[in-house]
Amino acid sequence: MSTDDEKIPAEESTPEKRAEILDPVSAEMGESGPLPDDGGYVDEPINTTIDNYVPAAPAITGIRPKMADRRGGTGMTIFGAGFAPGCRVFVDEEELIGEVVDGFTIRFVAPACEAKTARVTVEAASGKRSANDIEIEYSLGPDLERAIPDEVPLEGGVHVILEGERFAQGISLNLFGVHAPELTYDGDKRVAFLAPPAGDGPLEGAVIVTNPNGLSGRSETIFRYRRLQPQIDSIDPARGWLNGGKLLVVIGEDLHEKVRATIGGQPATLRHKSRTSVEIEVPPAEVPGAVDVVLTNPDGRAATLAGGFTYEPIPAPPKIIDAIPRTGLTIGGATIRVTGDNFTDDIRVKIGEVTCLRKVISSKLVDVELPPRQAPGVVAIEVSLAGVIVRAEDLFTYESPRAPKISHLEPRTGPMAGGTRIVIEGEGFPNNATVRIGGELAKTVIVRSSQKIETVSPPRKSGAGLVDVEVSSPETGPGTAKAGFKYETTPPPVITLVSPNKGTIDGGTELSIEG
User: Fold this and answer.
1) Over the stretch 202-247, which tens digit does the pLDDT of each residue have?
2) Domain segments of the chain: what residues?
3) How many CB atoms are closer than 10 A to CB 416?
4) Alpha carbon distance 370, 386 (integer Å)
5) Which 8-state DSSP code applies to residue 375?
């Protein structure tokens, strides 16, 4: 190569030699044009650096990807040399718009094609085409049909299912050009991913899935991020006392896991249950009345239920007057009525330190179900309301179960075939009582109360006569009424009159029989 201070000797600077230096491809093909005869010397230096080297015809060495979608739209890159502005790309003689990235790279978008293959060539601005072309294959790429769900909150964390066609094992996802979550493959029609947080990125855009063969499918509308807009639908309960402490269940929409709550402008302790439900502990207040309930998401968006909660004055403390009855069996289950004053629906009742199921009848009456207890003895009854506890010591006595006592049966007789409905009266009948009549277990037993049982006599297998009636349970043992019921034999029927008393030999005469 020459420099600014050197000349090339004439014997080394033949036209053929200089053509080879300027255009080695054309020189090799014998297509070099005439060069000026300067008497054996080149007056200007010859620049043969690679940066400025442009062969007369482009050359193709490769293409990526090697497969395009039959529907068109696949971005492709041609690698080679001699690419200059003005180069054109042809796919099976269809001219396309190509982007010359540099002398070695051209990009273009593959057109639609029904054939399985096509040939790609590059043509220089001079009209000379690449000496070689390259083949690409055509096939159908994946299709995106829908996303379930089709929108998620900004913080992501939601599992999303993509449904479509022609998904291949190893498929990848590009979400809005900024996220690439890992896909879980579930067949050629379904894949899934965990939505990442949106961050500062776009909230919607192109969703692109790409199979390992390079073919892709995209949708601009199938999926997006959505800002949470909190909403309050209901609050239960909606009333409480000024001292606070009541637990509210709030139902709504778009409640962020870090949502904050205020009641009447005061911060409230909150437990997030789901996107649609939270629990709030009511803070104390000084003045009764309706106040606003506000839920605020971390981004500042808030939902307000005006007058959603009402503070009420703290009621007078409860009072215990008596318990009816004052005794009960250790097996529990009996209904005890507690009398007193200032009872409300929020009252709690304990008998012998055990919380009872209760039903508030009025401000002066509450019925409770006696809890079971292991040992007999005297215990206290306790009521609590709004943090105030009132106890009546030694008001109730647990007693050990006693055997039931039968005082009366009605009726006292019945046929040996059984089926007689019997009412048994007495005391101490447990809820799980069984009845035996003459040693046979009665199948139907209805315990109406501790003093009354209704049953049906079973059939008698042996002779007629008086039999014992027994009421029993595993806890109490049996209570027996000796000879309490009498089985009677059923006499044979007696005919007293047949009318008419004669008929035709052909039969068919209607008879009336009395007896």
Assistant:
1) 999 999 999 998 899 999 999 999 888 999 999 999 999 898 999 9
2) 10-52, 59-139, 143-226, 231-312, 323-399, 405-488
3) 17
4) 23
5) S
